Amino acid sequence: MRTSISCNSRRVYVHQAAALTLGLLVTLGANLAQAQVPCEKLNSADEQQYDKLGVEALEHYEAAEYLDAIDAILRTRAVCDEDPILKFNLAWAYKKVGNCDLARYWFERSNDAADPFSIMMTDRQDNIAEALTELSVECSGSARVSIKCDDEGVTLSIGDQTFPCPFDGRIPQGTYPLRAEKEGRTPFASKVTLDATQSNHFLIPTLPEPSNRPTTRALLRVTCPGKDIVSMHGPGVNEDNVCPFEKSVAAGTFEFDAADKLWSDSVEVAAGEIVDLRVYGVPYEEGSGWGAKEWGWLTFGTGAALGAASLTLVVLADLDRLQIREPSQLGPDGTVLSLTRAEAKQLETDANTKNTVSIITGSAGAALVLTGVLLLTVNWDEDSDSSAGILWGDDFAGLSLSGRFN
Fold first, then answer.
1. Residue-wise pLDDT tens digits, 276-306
2. 219 has which bridge partners?
3. What is the phi-psi region of residue 310: left when phi exceeds 0, alpha when psi lies from -120 to 50, beta otherwise?
4. How far apart are CA 140 and CA 172, in angstroms?
5. How far apart are CA 200 and CA 194, in angstroms?
6. CA distances (Å), 252 to each of 218, 266, 273, in order?
7. Are 128 and 104 a contacting pair, CB within 8 Å?
8. pLDDT at 100 exceeding the cut of 90
9. Which phi and psi (to 5°) does residue 91 adopt?
10. What's the CA angle centered on 157, arms 66 and 139, to 5 degrees?
11. Which distant-in-sequence residues (6+ apart) come within 8 Å of 76 by Cβ?
12. What order of strands is seen across the sheet that includes strand 199-204?
């Protein structure tokens, strides 16, 4: 396997030269037959830095030092981010370290038709499409995330991952603690819920300068979609508030709940922190609630019980009619002694009513059994958060199903 570096006074480019499965990156000759070249307006000092970092990225990649290669490519983009090949190289480096989410994100970015230099990626379209097909399955629950900051030099923490701000990428969907820090400023903390079905955008406000005097308190800010009543419990606090609201509190752990939103949460705050908390509907939790299988067994069992009740009603109706056809007591002349005419008529009416109810019960039971079989046998996509539920109102009733199935 051979790796070469092609340089001139303009630029060094890294690209894929060996088999796709190996993902080896080499440089692309800088004399492109185009009217424009990425980063051609760099001054001499920045151009030298750009070329130096490009070579450094290649050397790290060839040595299988993929994290260092990622760092070098990101520093190269900090000098100039016009070259789409850098996005392509970054995607391959993230793929090498097993970061499916960010690999998928950078392959998507390298395939951006709106990029003024997208023509440089023409001969890589098949490779990008193949990689995206694989990664879209491998990390199908990946959420697109964009976080901007009013301040420069802010460091972001999302769950156990740390990034410089601004951050654009992909993160597995779910609810995470979000923290923003900058030296000499009061930290910002919040909780965010990332949805894989949409783009998730967040703006970190200016981090305030800390007070000159020591503080043992923190600021909690709570926002809601509407004017909800939120209960708040914690050190020195046990009250209901109309959302949105903010409150100065002592350091500690606070619990919140909004009953009409089926929502509850807790957050720990430290002295001097500003913590933002947003009330959502039912928060995303891996494997929470009843899924299609649980509802399948419930509807199947209910349907079977209704079917048994329907058969029981049919048997009871036949027994009523049997009393009319074969009375238990007859006189010497064949006169019915145990059943009057009125009683016989009532038995026939009761039998007809039981038959009608059995038809209704049996139909409902059959529908529920079929629904249960559907829920139990269809190959639902586990990542789609499939669910089922019963809907009813004054003049209707029905079963709600949601999810993706294969």
1. 777 765 444 444 455 667 777 888 889 889 8
2. 248, 274
3. alpha
4. 9
5. 6
6. 9, 11, 11
7. no
8. yes
9. -60, -45
10. 55
11. 50, 53, 54, 57, 86
12. 167-172, 142-149, 199-204
Q: Token pair of 160, please?
A: 């156990």
Q: What is the 3-state secondary structure (H, E, C) of 13-51?
A: EEEECCCCCCCCEEEECCCCCCCCCCCCCCCHHHHHHHH
Q: Tokens for 341?
A: 């005419």
Check: CB of residue 208 under 8 Å from CB of residue 153. Answer: no
Q: Measured between alpha carbons, how far is 159 from 7 in angstroms, rounded to an integer?
A: 41
The encoded tokens of residue 396 equal 């209707």
Query: Token pair of 301, please?
Result: 């069992």
Cβ atoms of 66 and 102 closer than 8 Å: no
Q: Which amino acid is at 114?
A: A
Chain segment 306-362, per-residue pLDDT in tens: 889 888 988 888 887 777 666 655 555 555 555 666 777 787 888 889 889 889 988
How many Å apart are CA 168 and CA 170, to the nearest integer?
Answer: 7
Beta bridge partners of 201: 146
pTM of the shown model: 0.51
Token pair belonging to 173: 């969907």
Cα–Cα distance for residue pair 58/54, rounded to 1 Å: 6
Pairing mode, strands 155-158 and 161-164: antiparallel
**H-helix or E-strand spanning residue 388:** strand 387-392
Q: If DSSP states are collapsed to H, E and C, what string results for the chain?
A: CCCCCCCCCCCCEEEECCCCCCCCEEEECCCCCCCCCCCCCCCHHHHHHHHHHHHHHHHHHHCCCHHHHHHHHHHHHHHCCCCHHHHHHHHHHHHHCCCHHHHHHHHHHHCCCCCCCHHHHHHHHHHHHHHHHHHHHHCCCEEEEEEEECCCCCEEEECCEEEECCEEEEEECEEEEEEEECCCCCCEEEEEEECCCCEEEEEECCCCCCCCCCCCEEEEEEECCCCCEEEEEECCEEEEEECCEEEEEECEEEEEEEHHHCEEEEEEECCCCEEEEECCCCCCCCCCCCCHHHHHHHHHHHHHHHHHHHHHHHHHHHHHHHHHHCCCCECCCCCECCCCHHHHHHHHHHHHHHHHHHHHHHHHHHHHHHHHHHHHHCCECHHHCCEEEEEECCCCEEEEEECCEC
Whether the pLDDT of residue 396 is over 50: the answer is no
